[in-house]
Amino acid sequence: MINIIASHGSELLSGLGQTVLCSVIALFFSLIIGSMFAIFEVLPSKVLHTIGRIYVEVVRNIPLLVVTMFFYIVIPQYVASINGFVAGTIGLTIYTSAFIAETVRAGIQSVSGGQMEAARSNGMTYWQAMRYIVLPQAFKIVIPPLGNQFINLVKNSSVLAFVAGFDLMYVGNDIASTSFDTINSYLVVGVMYLIITMPLSYYMRYLEKRTNRGAA
Amino acid sequence: MMKSFMDAYSAVNLMFLLKGLWITVEVSVISIILSYILGGILGFIRYMRIKYFSAIVGFIIDLIRNLPLILIFFFVYFGLPNLGLRIEIIPSSILALTVFESAMLAEIIRGGIESISKGQMEGARANGLTYWQAMRYIILPQAQVRMIPALVSQFISLIKDTSLATIIMLPELMYHAQIIYGQNTNYIIPMFVALAVMYFIVCYALSLFSRYLEKRIAS
């Protein structure tokens, strides 16, 4: 393992950088898109509700790889030339947004209906009540599940290896196939993923416990 | 456009896709069964809190859960031969999926058992059941019901995740579709439509079944 780190350290670090960068970008945009569809689903409008449901159900039931390859193969063919990193990040964003929509929707619905009614009867409009009363409370509830989504994102970003996204998995596999020391290369890559995901997952577990205690 | 769809969905191509779908289903079903058994054992060990042993098992579960599945595929198929252990593609895929998913399932199963109130166990023991009888007849049946949604959504993930095994050239649905659109760029969009539809039908049917199961048990 030391050999691999010594001879390929900088490549691995740049791969790790790409992995984190892609995960952060995808998290940011999937939060926006996911929250939008979550709000669609709780709105009184039947049409928007249906659009939200269809989006979530369709995207959630298609593999991430299919979504990512779609953007990697189809966009350059018909629209514009984009590289693997961009295509991969778009795929990840779309895929994750459906899961975030589910999480945020559950959060909004767990804020009791009385909150909305009280806000409305105090003279707020529907949107004011949503913006100042319901959403802030909902977001507090969904922070631990969103953290878990971020962990999934870091792990899922390894699909960039399929589309030459130069992420940690791609770089690691490249090192494995050129050095022939596959076991050690993959072990190093595994440790690097764990350095990001393990502390996060323990922290999220701690947050969940704290929130649960607060609720009880 | 219409024509390329008609050509892409020729009988030969459709048969080829269905063959891939069959491998996807076959590998998924075997992995689901194996990882349910293994995950159940691991989850139970973690629940039991046996000194040191449970903590070590728990740590290993956490390690696996926090790794990307693709890495586990690579490790099993390209890594293990370095240690002198060469496994064929299909068993490799099943092994990698089972290792990863059983770690996921272990957490779901442990959480499910823990969610049943302690009073249930105490009540059963007070009525003369042994620990294992209480587990078997009182705790597990209740935990099972609560776990259904989480279990089924994990099974759906597993089915979707089999597509990642294209990276070790498992001849499943995604791999076969790639072969078809690799021959003719006009087939790209028809193939992605077919992929989306096929995966959606399998996964959505499973989630509908889970909802039906929940309702039936609840009533």
TrEMBL record, chain A:
<protein>
    <submittedName>
        <fullName>ABC transporter permease subunit</fullName>
    </submittedName>
</protein>
<feature type="transmembrane region" description="Helical">
    <location>
        <begin position="16"/>
        <end position="42"/>
    </location>
</feature>
<keyword id="KW-0813">Transport</keyword>
<dbReference type="InterPro" id="IPR000515">
    <property type="entry name" value="MetI-like"/>
</dbReference>
<dbReference type="Pfam" id="PF00528">
    <property type="entry name" value="BPD_transp_1"/>
</dbReference>
<keyword id="KW-0472">Membrane</keyword>
<feature type="transmembrane region" description="Helical">
    <location>
        <begin position="54"/>
        <end position="75"/>
    </location>
</feature>
<keyword id="KW-1003">Cell membrane</keyword>
<dbReference type="GO" id="GO:0043190">
    <property type="term" value="C:ATP-binding cassette (ABC) transporter complex"/>
</dbReference>
<dbReference type="GO" id="GO:0022857">
    <property type="term" value="F:transmembrane transporter activity"/>
</dbReference>
<keyword id="KW-0029">Amino-acid transport</keyword>
<dbReference type="InterPro" id="IPR035906">
    <property type="entry name" value="MetI-like_sf"/>
</dbReference>
<dbReference type="InterPro" id="IPR043429">
    <property type="entry name" value="ArtM/GltK/GlnP/TcyL/YhdX-like"/>
</dbReference>
<keyword id="KW-1133">Transmembrane helix</keyword>
<keyword id="KW-0812">Transmembrane</keyword>
<feature type="transmembrane region" description="Helical">
    <location>
        <begin position="183"/>
        <end position="203"/>
    </location>
</feature>
<feature type="transmembrane region" description="Helical">
    <location>
        <begin position="150"/>
        <end position="171"/>
    </location>
</feature>
<dbReference type="GO" id="GO:0006865">
    <property type="term" value="P:amino acid transport"/>
</dbReference>
<feature type="domain" description="ABC transmembrane type-1">
    <location>
        <begin position="16"/>
        <end position="204"/>
    </location>
</feature>
<comment type="similarity">
    <text>Belongs to the binding-protein-dependent transport system permease family.</text>
</comment>
<feature type="transmembrane region" description="Helical">
    <location>
        <begin position="81"/>
        <end position="101"/>
    </location>
</feature>
<dbReference type="InterPro" id="IPR010065">
    <property type="entry name" value="AA_ABC_transptr_permease_3TM"/>
</dbReference>
From TrEMBL, chain B:
<dbReference type="InterPro" id="IPR000515">
    <property type="entry name" value="MetI-like"/>
</dbReference>
<keyword id="KW-0029">Amino-acid transport</keyword>
<keyword id="KW-1133">Transmembrane helix</keyword>
<dbReference type="InterPro" id="IPR035906">
    <property type="entry name" value="MetI-like_sf"/>
</dbReference>
<protein>
    <submittedName>
        <fullName>Arginine transport system permease protein ArtQ</fullName>
    </submittedName>
</protein>
<keyword id="KW-0472">Membrane</keyword>
<dbReference type="Pfam" id="PF00528">
    <property type="entry name" value="BPD_transp_1"/>
</dbReference>
<keyword id="KW-0812">Transmembrane</keyword>
<dbReference type="GO" id="GO:0006865">
    <property type="term" value="P:amino acid transport"/>
</dbReference>
<feature type="transmembrane region" description="Helical">
    <location>
        <begin position="187"/>
        <end position="209"/>
    </location>
</feature>
<feature type="transmembrane region" description="Helical">
    <location>
        <begin position="52"/>
        <end position="77"/>
    </location>
</feature>
<feature type="transmembrane region" description="Helical">
    <location>
        <begin position="20"/>
        <end position="45"/>
    </location>
</feature>
<dbReference type="InterPro" id="IPR043429">
    <property type="entry name" value="ArtM/GltK/GlnP/TcyL/YhdX-like"/>
</dbReference>
<keyword id="KW-1003">Cell membrane</keyword>
<keyword id="KW-0813">Transport</keyword>
<dbReference type="GO" id="GO:0022857">
    <property type="term" value="F:transmembrane transporter activity"/>
</dbReference>
<dbReference type="GO" id="GO:0043190">
    <property type="term" value="C:ATP-binding cassette (ABC) transporter complex"/>
</dbReference>
<comment type="similarity">
    <text>Belongs to the binding-protein-dependent transport system permease family.</text>
</comment>
<dbReference type="InterPro" id="IPR010065">
    <property type="entry name" value="AA_ABC_transptr_permease_3TM"/>
</dbReference>
